[in-house]
## 1
Amino acid sequence: MAGMFVSDVLVIGGGIAGLSVAARLAAKARVVVLESESAPGYHASGRSVAFAHYGLGNAPVRTLTALSMGELAKLGSIHPALHIASADQMPLLDDLEGVHRHFACDYSRVGPDGARGLMPALKPEACLAALIDHGSLKLDTHAMLQAHAASLKAGGGKVVTGTRVSAIARESDVWRITTSAGDFAAPILVNAAGAWADEIARMASVTPIGIEPRRRTVISFAAPQGEDVSRWPFTKTVGEGFYLLPEGRSQLLASSMDQTPSDPCDAAPEELDIAIAADRVEQATTLPIRRIAHSWAGLRSFAPDELPVIGHAAGAPGFVWCAGQGGAGFQTAPALSAIAASAALGLPFPEYCAAAGLSFETFAPARLGA
């Protein structure tokens, strides 16, 4: 294979999914990450608010979060999460309390006065009761991505940016990848391409898993003049509504938690989504949003059952899925990357994950016919 860069594992996608599994694999194999953009984390990973909490995802995703919290704490900071409920959302709050109890979280249940004690801008009618998670984490996404890239490099691997994939073929027991930066080959190919994961599968003649990218919009605006909001909690409705959190001492971030289906793309915020986010904050709080300082959008990618997809594709030796993390990519990365690395190399399922009730079958693409 003259003129071709050969390694043990090729990972397509330099977001948190691709970099975290590549860092795990680098201890046992020669790994190359192919990233189409000019830098890792350009799309969903670079646009994530990345706050680790238990109000996100289904039961296996919450288990992955619990298994990841210890490692996440090394690159995150403890910051309380306030989950608020209106009268019709009380059953959802009860369910969420059950989740926190199950994982032995440091939490407390409070009434409206207790909630406003933490989040003074809440209007009384916006919160009948709330749950405070005292151990949730505000994550440093840049630090996490850089830490994984450093681990990859220390293990002899590397990230090659500006490598747009144009063709994928299985030849002589290796995957050959044709890109804008040259040809690459390896017996194992990990598909961590996020919103583009199904497109990569089609190039490789692998059955797609039905990935649905969904756009989410975030707005930034000034806190009330003279108010230090840095200690305000991450505040989130347990059902439809919004989330709100501080960004430093004088800025706030908010989202209506929109999930608009989208084609894979360089997502941009739409005026309607910006307006909805601002309106929901103003309806539930005393915060006047006179000017949007900044807004952005990213794509969160989901499989049909909203579980991550990890494992070998049927009938495609060496093709390994690592996709469908939804909005939980950062907060599940430690545990999920351990599972994906074990699947890629044919190693046993991580014992600590099995002890929590998970298995390869939980995330296998076979459940989706892929």
Note: The mean pLDDT is 96.
## 2
Amino acid sequence: MAKRDTVRYVCTNCGAEHNTWGGRCHVCGQWNTLEQQLIIKQGKLKSGGTILQVEDVTSSIKRDHKRLASNIAEIDDVLGGGLVSGSVNLIAGQPGIGKSTLLLQVAYNLAKAHRVLYVSGEESSHQIGIRAERLGASTQGLQLATSTVADDIATTIASGKYEAVIVDSIQTLSCKDIASAAGTVSQITNSTQLLTAAAKQTDTSLILVGHVTKEGSIAGPKVLEHVVDVVLQLEGDRYGGFKVLRAIKNRYGTTNEAGIFEMTDKGLQSVDNPSAALLAERQITDGSVVLATIEGTRPLLVEVQALVNRTSYGYPKRTASGIDLNRLNLLVAMLEKRTKLNLADQDIYINIVGGIRLSEPAADLAICMAIGSAAKGLQLKKNAVVFGEVGLSGEVRHVPFVEKRVAEAKKLGFEVCIGPQLKNRKLTKYLAVSDIRIALNSVLEGK
């Protein structure tokens, strides 16, 4: 940072570099595709270069720093044990999902034992103070600052005064040497590079807040996700239900863990028994099936509801809340082809209770059973939990973590589990089905 950084202009269509801005790229001929980028000088390269200093990998392991624990079990598990010194962490989520609330709670817990700085580019210090008072997260060790200048924040991080810095959010920052507005590709890219370089030099744990697009992906260039070490996604319904924190990328741990939270007047609180909470208000009726799913490595029981009604229009409607609509259409087509269910003139609505979004194939059997139950007005014969992947031929396929799903169902008092056939496994109170026809004919009965 001692030398002034230079600027170049890069074509977003072909990638050609230009020293000055022009309305048209002279390589590909496209108009208005040149964007300003900052070239950060890391130091003058000597003629011929120098030999790199190498070391044995065991010596680098011995120098591994202790992680900064947030003392929030759900977050520490997702991170792999806490924040790594010198790591850059990106957390993203829908507006109003609770990103700032969660990070203020993390900052408060970290400030009890570490030097923490919370930098906001969206709110004033007074607004942050009001939220801290509401959450009971006020402490002398937590420092606040408001700024949208990436150069100033990077200089503050480079001073080495803080062990952890939270920046809310990266889309509000701008570099002094970039003429474009905050939130553009060049500003996001260069601001992230400035902050990352400062954090790596001083072993400061950096947490960045990122916005998302209408489609739910992280806003800004894809390079933003490549530069950082950890990418966290906070999902759920902003108006209620559970919030799920997932690790999309984690260089220091697994991406299989998931943290489950519930929004209260005191902030986001960890849910001790999410399965019991999700099933607390369940009514046993046709179209209601309990699914044993896996969130990370944790078993979770959720209710799958289906409503099947004759359409009033020429084209039947398919609506899904909590699952992929394309997957629902595929399962409906399979049911009509492989079973005696006539769904061509039926509106079908699927809802996953509690704001949970399912993506694993093990939900297929529960969805099919719920549709069959609602279409025929039948219920499950027993107080059962369902899981299994369904193929296009109607076969029920194997899914992982069967023992965990069965144990969770047994803990909540369910009588039997319905799932795929197992090899070399003997589980009590387990009903194996080979295809969807057998499942519908053997476990559904009238009211």
Note: Residues 115 and 162 are 5 Å apart (CA to CA).
